[in-house]
Amino acid sequence: LNEIFMLVKKFREKNTETPIILMGYMNTLLANSHALKEGHAFGADAVLIVDIPGESDLEELGIKNKNLASISLIAPTTTEDRISKICNCSSGFIYYVTLRGVTGSSHLDISEAEEKINYIKSQTSLPVFAGFGIKTPDDAFNLSKISDGIVIGSSLVQMIHEQSNQKEFKKIYNYLHEMSEAINR
Predict the structure, then answer these.
(1) Distance from first CA to last CA of the chain, Å, rounded?
(2) Is there a contact between 93 and 126 (Cβ–Cβ < 8 Å)?
(3) What's this model's pTM, rounded to 2 decimal places?
(4) Does residue 62 come out as left (phi exceeding 0), alpha (psi in the -120 to 50 range) or beta?
(5) Rounded Cα gap, residues 49 and 60, in angstroms
(6) Nearest to 82 by CA among 53, 60, 58
(7) What value does the mean pLDDT take over residues 60-89?
(8) d(Cα 69, Cα 40) in Å, to the nearest integer?
(9) Are 117 and 96 in contact (CB under 8 A)?
(10) Digit-coded pLDDT (tens) for 111-157
(11) Rounded Cα gap, residues 137 and 183, in angstroms
């Protein structure tokens, strides 16, 4: 994590505008909670701890840093009662998981996502981003119309992995360009 902070600090020397969210598991982040207390000083804006209940906040975990937003996940199976609690404990934005299953899997149900996102928006003033399972420009277009933003993860990670030996990232650039055009049409 300290190496990641140094990478973020180096990135911040050239770019102060792009938000940076540290995403990881509780054990790693808690083992380094002292570093997270000063994470904003290195340039991090938020943290997403994927394996904690959304009703938890960073202070409950011993991470006292008002300058670091806490991003929470809400799944399609999350009850309305829990959604309300999660929204009350979050800052930054709410990350709506569009799939039932694991990241990188398929079958995106846009109508279910729209219904859940609308309910989440009724419970919070925070932006609601949609992620998981966004692979095509059509996915990006459809979800961008019902959410405040989209998150593309697995597709990018896979492309980076496939292209990393050749250091040829034009395919990734083209993919992101297509996704951007879809969102902005």
Answers:
(1) 38
(2) yes
(3) 0.87
(4) left
(5) 13
(6) 53
(7) 88
(8) 10
(9) yes
(10) 999 999 999 999 999 999 999 888 899 999 999 999 999 999 888 88
(11) 8
